[in-house]
Fold each of these.
Amino acid sequence: MTRAAHEEPNVLRLRRLGIDTYQELVVFLEMGSPICRSEGWGAESRVLVTHREKSIVATLNVTTTTLLGPHEASLSEAAWHVLGVSEGDLVRLTHAPAVDSLSQVRAKVYGETLTAAGILSIVRDIVAGRYSDIDLAAFITAFAGTKVSVDETIALTTAMIETGERLYWGRAPIVDKHCVGGLPGNRTSMIVVPIVASCGLTIPKTSSRAITSPAGTADAMETIAPVDLDLAQMRHVVEREGACIVWGGRVRLAPADDVIISVERPLDFDSSTQLVASVLSKKAAAGSTHVVIDIPIGPTAKVRSIAAADALEAMLHAVGTALGLSIRVVRTDGTQPVGRGIGPALEARDVLRVLRGAADAPDDLRARSIALAGAVLEIGSAAQAGKGAVRAREALENGDALRKFEAICAAQGGMKEPVIGRLTHVVRATGPGRVTGIDSRRLARLAKLAGAPRALAAGLELHARLDTIVEADQPLMTLYAEAQGELDYAREYLAANPQVIDLEES
Amino acid sequence: MTRAAHEEPNVLRLRRLGIDTYQELVVFLEMGSPICRSEGWGAESRVLVTHREKSIVATLNVTTTTLLGPHEASLSEAAWHVLGVSEGDLVRLTHAPAVDSLSQVRAKVYGETLTAAGILSIVRDIVAGRYSDIDLAAFITAFAGTKVSVDETIALTTAMIETGERLYWGRAPIVDKHCVGGLPGNRTSMIVVPIVASCGLTIPKTSSRAITSPAGTADAMETIAPVDLDLAQMRHVVEREGACIVWGGRVRLAPADDVIISVERPLDFDSSTQLVASVLSKKAAAGSTHVVIDIPIGPTAKVRSIAAADALEAMLHAVGTALGLSIRVVRTDGTQPVGRGIGPALEARDVLRVLRGAADAPDDLRARSIALAGAVLEIGSAAQAGKGAVRAREALENGDALRKFEAICAAQGGMKEPVIGRLTHVVRATGPGRVTGIDSRRLARLAKLAGAPRALAAGLELHARLDTIVEADQPLMTLYAEAQGELDYAREYLAANPQVIDLEES
C-alpha cells in the first residue's frame, strides 16, 4: 500500500473506551467519520470487524461528540475480548454479510417444521456470534412454544453438540447426573459426585451457572473451590480423582447453550425444548454415557404436574436414545426447597454439613443425595439393582465421600469455607400457626432480589419446613445480602408478598 | 437535605457522551461508583432514571475507564431526548420496578389466549418504555405466529388506540386509504388524497415511514413537502384544504406501533396480526370512519395468494367492525412493482408526473390511483356506486387534483422538487429476450442496499416491464445511491442474484 494502513477508509485504529454492554458485541464510530459516510452506516447497522484473520459481527453505535476521532473505532468490552485486540490495533470494518439462517427462524415463527440442516445453520450462526440479541430473542421465543417436534429437538441438541468441543475419556461407563431445576437449594450434585467417585465410577461433572434461579451448581461450588478450569486442567483432575465439579463454559462444550442462556435469562424463559437440548447437549459433549436426571415435581417447581413430568421424561428418553445416551429419570418431591440455604454460599454450606456428618445437616438434602447417588451407582453398574442407595449411604457415613470431595477440591486448586452475606435481616412469624405452604418461585425471587447469584454470599436461609408449627415471633427465614439496596429491595418485596410462606392459625 | 443533592448516593450529575444506541434507552455509570455498589448493579441491570417528575427505564452499561466520574452518569442519545434533560442536570437512579405484563407475554408464548386486559397491560408497558429490545422481540415473535385469535387481534388494536392520542374532526365521513404493502413503488396515496379532497371529502392522511420496504408514503412525501407536523399544524392544514399527507409519528397516534416497528424492522417480521393492528389502530386513532384498503397480490408481494388475501380481508373486516370502521378492501395486481421508481425520491417523481399529466407518467400508477380514489369517493358517498373511477379520472385530468396537491404542500410548509441520487449505475440486458419475471422482494432489497429509505434520494428506476421485449445491452434499470459503498454493495448483490429480472430468450 502506498498510504499508511490507517489512512485506508475501512481501516481504523482502536481506542479502548471501556464500555461494558454485557454480551452484545458493539463497535463505536464517530458519526461524521469517513467510513460512516462511504458505507452509509448509522446506529444499529451490523458491521464485520476484522483483525488479522479473526472477525466478529458487531452492532454499530455512533458517537456524536469528540469521544473518538474520525479514523478511530472502539469496541464494547465483550467485543474487545472476543476479538483479542489491544489498544492501538488496526481493524478493518465492512458490511456484515446477510445472516441466511434467520430465514429459518422466520419459517419456524410462521409455523414450519425445520430440517436438521436448517437448525444446524441457525446454531452455527449463533456460535459464530452472528445473531444480535434481538435475533436471539426471536429464536428463543420461536422455540419456546409447544409446537417443536421431537425431531427438531434432536436436531437442535445434535447441532449444539457439533458446534463445540467433544470430550472422550477412553473408558466406559462415564456417569453423570443433572437436575432440571426449579427447586431452590437442590445442590445434590456436590454430594453425589464424591459419593459416586469414592465407589470407583468416573464422573466428570460440568455444571452451569444459574439461568433464572438464585444459584447453579457452578456458583455454589465456586464458593468452595475454583470451577473455571480449562480442558487440560479438568482432565488432570479427573485422571487424579476420577471426578470433578467444574464450570462447563470454559471448556467450550455446547457453546451455543451459553449464548442462548444469556438472552433466556433476562427473558425469564425456560422452555422444555431448550431445557432438553441444553442438558443433553452438555452431557453428550462432556462424553457421558449414562445419565441420571432428577425431576422435582410440585406446584411451584419448574415441572408442576405428573403429566408435565411424563412429557419431559418422554422427550429426554427420545432425544437421549437418538444420541446414544442411557437416561434414567428420578422424580422427586418439588413442593418445598431442599436444604435450608438458597443462594450459592448458603447452599454450599448445607453441602459441607452433609458431607461432614454435622448434626445440623439438612436431612432432606442428605436423603435425596443418597437416593440419586444410588441411582447413578446402579446405572454405572457399581451396585446391583435396588442396592445403590445402601452403598451410597455407606460411602457418605464412613467418610469416603468427604475425603473424596476434599481431594477433588484440592485437585481443582484449593478448598476454602464459603463466605456468607454480611448484611442480614431475620423474618419472623406474625403469629402462631402451621406452615401450610412454601412458594419456591417467590423464595427464589426473594433470594435473587437479595443479590444471588451475582453476589455469591447473598440469599436466604429457611428456618421452617412444611407442616411444622411455629410460635409468634419465631424466625421463619434470614435474608443475607452484600449491598444495602438489595437487602432493602428484598424486604420491600416480602412486605408486598407476605404469602411466600403461608401460615395457617392452628 | 443537609448534603448537596449530588452527594446523595442515588443522585448523579449527567454528562453527555453522545452515544447513539438507536432506540434502546441506555444509562452509563462508572463501574466502581458508589451507587453500583450500594444497589448491586452490573451491566444489563434495568434502572429507573428520574428527572423531576419524569422517569424512564434504561438498561445499564458500565464504563471501566475514566469516561465518567463516580458521581456522574450518562445516557444514550435516545434516552437524553425522551427524558428531556441537559448536560449537568441531576437524575435519581433506582431499581426499575418489575414489569408485570411480561408474564402475559410468557403466557402467550406457552400457548395461552390472552384477555383484553392482559393485552392492554402489555401495550401500556410498551408505550411507557418499560420493554427492553429483547422483551419487544419476544412479544413480536409471540404474536407473529398463526395462533393469535380474532379477539386477541381486536384487543391488541384497541389497546394500541387507547394508549395514544385520538383525533376527532367534528364531521363525517372522514375517509382514508391504506396499502398493506409489499409492492415497491405503490405510492397511490399521494395521488388519491388530492383527487378525493378536490371532490370535497375530508381525508386527513397520516402515513408511516418504511418498515421493511425501501420507501413509505411519509418518506416519499418528505422529498416534496414537510411531513413532520404536530397536531395543531395538521389540523390547520386539514381545516384549510380538507386533507393532508403527514407522518403519523409526530401526533402520537397509536405510539406503541412505532416502538414495535423499531424492533420488527431488524427482525424483518411482518405478521398479519401486527399488520391489521398497526393499520387499523392508526386509522381509528386518526379519526377515520371509512377506509379503503389496497391489498396487492402476487408471488413476490406481501400477500401471495387468494387464500392469504381472503384471510387478511376477513381479519380486517372483523376487527374493523369491532372498532366501528367501515372497511372496503380492493385487491390489486402484485406481480410487479408499480411505477418506475423504487425509493422515496424516485417514487415521488413518478407521483408528480401523474399529477402533472406528463407524457412519461407511469400508466399503471395512474390507473391504480384512479381506481382506488374511485373506491374512496364511493364509500365516502361523493360518487354513486360504480361511478367513482369516472369522477376520479375527471379530477385528475382537469388539473383539480394537481392544484389541490400543490395547495396541501404549501399548507404543510412548502413544496420542492425531489432530489435524486447523484451516483448511478445502469444495469443492461445481457442478451435479447422477453421479461418473464420481476422479483419485487429482491428489487426492494436491491433498493435498500443502494441506501433507501435512509438515503431519500437512493433506490432504482425500472426501465422494463413484464412481457416486454428487450434487446442486448438495453437498460433494464438504473441504480441510484448517495454513498459509493452502498452503490457497490447493490452491484455485488445483483451480480450474485442476477434473476431479479428474468429474461427468456425469445
Note: The two ends of chain B are 87 Å apart (CA to CA).
Amino acid sequence: MKPAAVSSAAFRQETDSRPLPPGWKSYMSPEGVRYYVNSCSKETTWRRPSLLTESPQRPLAQQNSSPYANGCHSTAKAGRPTEATDVALRKPTMMKQPPGSVSPARRQIKEVKETKITINCVTFPLPGEGPEQQLLKPNEWSYCDYFWNDKKDPQGTTSVAGFEVLLQKQLKGKQMQKEMAEFIHERIKIEEEYAKNLSKLSLNPLAAQEEGTLGEAWTQLKKSLHDEAEVHLKFSNKLHTEVEKPLLTFRCDNFKKDLKKYDHHIADLRKQLASRYTSVEKARKALADRQKDLEVKTQQLEIKLSNKTEEDIKKARRKSTQAGDDLMRCVDLYNQTQCKWFEEMVTTSMELEKLEVERIEWIQQHLRQYTTLRHETDMFNQSMVEPVDKLLQNVDPAKDRELWVRENNTGDVRPVDMDI
Amino acid sequence: MKPAAVSSAAFRQETDSRPLPPGWKSYMSPEGVRYYVNSCSKETTWRRPSLLTESPQRPLAQQNSSPYANGCHSTAKAGRPTEATDVALRKPTMMKQPPGSVSPARRQIKEVKETKITINCVTFPLPGEGPEQQLLKPNEWSYCDYFWNDKKDPQGTTSVAGFEVLLQKQLKGKQMQKEMAEFIHERIKIEEEYAKNLSKLSLNPLAAQEEGTLGEAWTQLKKSLHDEAEVHLKFSNKLHTEVEKPLLTFRCDNFKKDLKKYDHHIADLRKQLASRYTSVEKARKALADRQKDLEVKTQQLEIKLSNKTEEDIKKARRKSTQAGDDLMRCVDLYNQTQCKWFEEMVTTSMELEKLEVERIEWIQQHLRQYTTLRHETDMFNQSMVEPVDKLLQNVDPAKDRELWVRENNTGDVRPVDMDI
C-alpha cells in the first residue's frame, strides 16, 4: 500500500488545462508571467487557484471511497503582505506584485492586523479571521477534517501530531483484534475442559447393572453426555478456525510496516516544513536588518551626519530589496511544502479511515460467526437429548419384569400337599 | 408396610360361608364331622376346598393390584394315601377315611408310584405327575409364579430361597438409585466448574478498550458468557433439587428395614416348615417300626414260635394304629404350614413386584425431569446470545468514527498559506 502520488502542478507556472474555480480569470503580465485575479474579491495571485484554493474552501467531493484530496488549498493573499514592502523596491521578479493588485501602504507594519498564527511550523488562520472554512467532508466526521493541529501532551511540553493520533488508533485496533483472539482462545479452553469432563463421566459405570428398558434408557442417558461433549468439541474447533485464527491473522505483520511507512512519510514532510519555516524566520530577520540599515543610512544622509554617499544608500537599498526577494522566495517554498504536507495528510488520513471502517466491519462479521456457532451448538446439544427422551418413553416395568424373571426365575412349579 | 394378614380359616373345620368351588359338595359324617366330595373326580377330603384348592388349580384373579392370593391350594388326595394303611385299624378319629371314599388296598406300598418330591422340605409334584398347573397370573411374568424353588449356589452346596432372589433384586434397585444420584452429582460438579470458568472469563478485560458500537457489542459478548454461566448454574441447582436429591431420598432407610421384615417373616415360615417336615419323617419312621413289630409278632403267632398272647398282638396293633394317626397328624400340620408359607409367598412377592413397578416408574419420571432440564438449559442458553446478535447488528463504523473523532480530534481548522 503506497502513499498516493500527488501532483505538484499547482505550483508550476506551466500551461495548465485544469479549469479555474468560478470567479477567477487568468492574465499575462508585461514580463510574460501569468497571474490570476478573482473578480469578486479582487484577490490577485501568482499561484493558479484550484477547486480547493479559493476561499471559502470548497468541500471535497462527497465520495466515501475517494481517499484523495483534490489539489491543495490556499488562501493566498499575496497581494497584501503582512510585512510592509516598498513596492518601488521590487525588481521585476516572479514574486513581485502582480499588476492590477492593490498597492500596499508603505510601512504599515504596525497597522496590519495579525490574521494568522504559526504553531509548530504550521500556519493557521486566527479565529474569526479569514473566510470561513467549510469541512472537506461535511456530516461524515471524516479523519481529514479533524486532525490538523498537534495535540499537546498533558504532562510535558511535547506535542503529538494529529496524524499520530490517527495512526495510534489503527495500531490500537490491531491490538484489539489480538486481544479478542485471546479471549476466544480462552473460551476454547473452557469448552475443551467441559467436553473432556463430560466424556469422562459418560464412561462411568455407575448404575450399569440396571437392566431392561430402564437400563437401556439409563445407558443412553450416559452416552448422551459423550454426544454433548462432541458437540462442544466441535464448537471449540470451529471457534478456532472460524473466529480465533482469522482474528489473529487478519492484517498480518505487513500492516504495521505499512503504517510505519505512512508515519515516516508524513513525519518527513513535517520536518521539511519545519526546515522551510526556519528559513523563513531567518529571511525575515535578514530583511528586518537590511531595512533598519537602510533607514539608518537614509536618516544620516538627511541630517548630513555622515559622509555616506548616495552610493551607499543605493547599496543598502539594493540589499534590502534582495532580502525582500529572499523572504518572498522562502515564504513561497514554505507554502509549497505546507501544501504538499496538506495533500498527503488528506490522502493518508482517508486511507486510515477506510482501514478503520474495514476493521470494524471485519470484526463484526467474525463476531457474528461466533454467535452463529453458539446458536448451532445449543441446537445440536438439544438434539442429543432426544434419543434419551425416546428411550425413557419406552420404559416399561412389565417388560422389564418379564426380561428379569425369564433370566432369574427359580421355578414355576408350585408346592403341593404332601401325601401320607 | 406390614405383611398382609392371611386368614387360615381354610384349615379350620368351622362354619365357613365361603362358596365352594364348582363340583364340590359338603356332607356331615356320622361322627358329626364335615367332609367334602368332588362329584366329578370323586375326591374326598376333610379340608374345605377354596377357589385354589381344586385341581387343576384355577388362576388367580387377573388384577394387577391385588397382591393377595386367594386362599391356598391343595391337591388333596387324602383319600389315597401313599402309604398303605389298614383301614380296619383306624379308629374313628378326625383323620379317618371320610365315608364314601374309595378303600385303599392293603399293603400297596410297593406298588404306589412316586408322584411327589420334597426338596429342602418343600413338596412339589414330579414332572408329568398330577394335574397340570396353570400360572396364577398368566402372561404377566408375575413374581408369584416363578420363584417357588430354591436356587442352587453354583459354587457350593448351599441354596438360596426363591424369595431371597426377589429380595436381592429390590435391594439392588435401591443401590441403583443411589448410583444414579451419584452420577447426577458428578454432572452437577461439571456444570458448576463450567459456569465458574465462563463467569471468570466474562470479567476478563481483554479488548475492553474497544469503543463505540463495536465496543458495545464486544462488551455484551463478554457479558453473555456470564449469562451462560448463570444458565448452567441454574441447571445444576435444579439437577440437585429435582433429580439428585429425590433419587437419594426415594424410599428412605425404612425401606431396607421393611424388606428385612419380609425376609425374616418368610424365612421363619420356612423354618417352621422344616421343623414340621422333620416331625413327619420321625412319625413315618415310628410307624414303620410299629408295623414291622406287628408283622413280626403276627408271624410268630402263626408259627406258634413264641408265647406271645393275642393280647400282645392287640397291643402291637394298637400302637401301629396310633403311629398311623400320629403320622397323619404330622402330615396335616406340615401341609397347613406349607400352605401358610405359600400364601405369604404369594402376598409378599406381589408386594415386591409392585415395589419394583413403582421404582421403575419413579426413576423414569425423574430421568425425564433430567432431560427436560437439559432442553430448557439449551433453550435459555441460546437466548443469551440474542442481545449480542442485536448489538452486532447495530455495529456502525460511521457512528463509531463520529464518536471517536468527537472525543479525540485535534482541531478542525485547516492550515493556510503563510503571508509575507
Note: Chain A touches chain B through 117 residues (CB under 8 Å).
